[in-house]
Specification:
Blueprint: H1 4-20, H2 28-47, H3 56-73, H4 85-96, H5 99-115, H6 121-174, H7 176-192, H8 199-225
Helix pairs in contact: 1-3, 1-5, 2-3, 3-4, 4-5, 4-6, 5-6, 6-7, 7-8
Keywords: Membrane, Transmembrane, Transmembrane helix
Transmembrane segments: 7-25, 31-47, 59-79, 85-113
Amino acid sequence: MQFVSPILGVITVVAAFLIAVSPLADYGLQIAAFTMVVYVGVSFLIRKRILSADIKVTLDILVFSLTISLLIFTTGGFASPVFFLSYFLLFGVTLFSSPITATAITVTFALLFIVAPKADFWMDLLQMGSLLAIAPLSVLFGRQYIKVIADKKMITGLNQKVQKDKIDVTTWTEGDFRRRLLRIQEYLQKLGQDPSIELDKKERINSLYRQIYDLFLSGRSLEKKI
């Protein structure tokens, strides 16, 4: 998808330009509308899992690029009153795909500017200049967006690890840790009740018994904090 998306973006922009300079230009709006209908239909099939979700990004780039490019080129090209939609196109493809796709589309517009007929050269040049000025911002926006997504994935992974560790600690304190402490306490209790053991040793055993009990309580406290 790293190279497919930029190539697809270039192809759709060029296709829209060719439609605009051909006899099909009069049907530009109808073609755009038909494209949107197809998009809605295919999206419905993807939601119903009839079609693979892997084609969603490709479909988004295809429809978004073709529709906006058609609207621009069939309403005056670089002198179009809706040329500002090209800015949204650049920012949109950075969300659907990557900054590379936005860069490829910008370069395509620049090349088409060279060969396109110009009603007002300076006005068209101003429009093209504004698009070139917006392009770095869209690339920066795309990179930041990708970074945010990566950070969210990392945070999700850490949260899952914390939850797993919490379950492991709870299982250990309620299971093996607790059983072993109870066995030691039972053993120490029997020793403390043994009449053959001297008094000072019994006091030490009782002290050890209380310390083990405090250790058990601290383990339960740690479990609650986690």
